[in-house]
Amino acid sequence: MDLLKQSQKLIVAARTIPRDDRVPYAFHRRIMARLAGRTAVDLWEPWGRAFSRAAFCSVALMLLLAIGSFLVPSASSVSLSQDVETTLLAAVDNNTEQIGDTR
Amino acid sequence: MIAPRAAEAVVCSALGKDATDAELIAAVLQGDTASFAPLVQKYSPRVFATARRYARRESEVEDIAQEVWLKSFQKLATFRGEAPFEHWLMRLTVRTCYDFLRGHQRNREMMFSELSQPEEDWLERVVTRPDEALEHAAAARQLIGRVLEQLSPAARLVITLLEIEERSVKEIAELTGWSVPLVKVRAFRARAEMKRCLARLAKGKYL
Fold this sequence. Notes:
Chain A has one domain (7-102). With 103 residues, chain A is mostly helical.
């Protein structure tokens, strides 16, 4: 049996099916009743979408930079953990130095 | 209950009956919810016609149409007015239908014994007298509905849009949000899937 021919025949038959565009009685009233509970159109939708895209891009950039920092070793530092520690404690170190200077 | 469209009452909004789609949309966005009703009335036949291609039961068709309109109301602010509202709405409708198909995926294989007598006769006629087979289109229509139900959601969507509605690949890409190469790949797979489905049916009968 030629399956290609058979499926083509089925599709030709399917094309002969007329479009059924009947709408149930008072359908628009039902929709409007459902919408009545909703006060307004969600104006935050486009913003939300834009923010989610921006967040996705930021995460992707962060991952790339993180990968880059692992692949390219820094000449001045001993290790990544030491770099992180230095960065995190930079403010505390500055404060300690300033207190020492004033004394 | 289904009634002719002409019998439906006209819903009044702040705008007149002759308001354009753009005017109605602008009014809705400014808080006049009633202006959404003429849009629902005008485009519901298209939404229902599309939904009936993917759902068999009338309750499912109504659920799809309702979801389309609720979504379109919520997302109306994203409509930029560059293309006609109808195009935007049809994209939303097709995507909602696709979501429906994915949510109601029936993972069962139809066997030959499940076919009705006219469907069985048509399938047999295709083999024995291929030239006469198209004369019995009603059975073929029933059969295509059942064959389409066997396909994966993506395959069903592609076959319906490409083969039955005879839309171009570019149009399908716009409606579904898929890329043109992805539509082509899915169309190729869908045809193969359909042939496999028919082969399975034929095997049940002739082997």
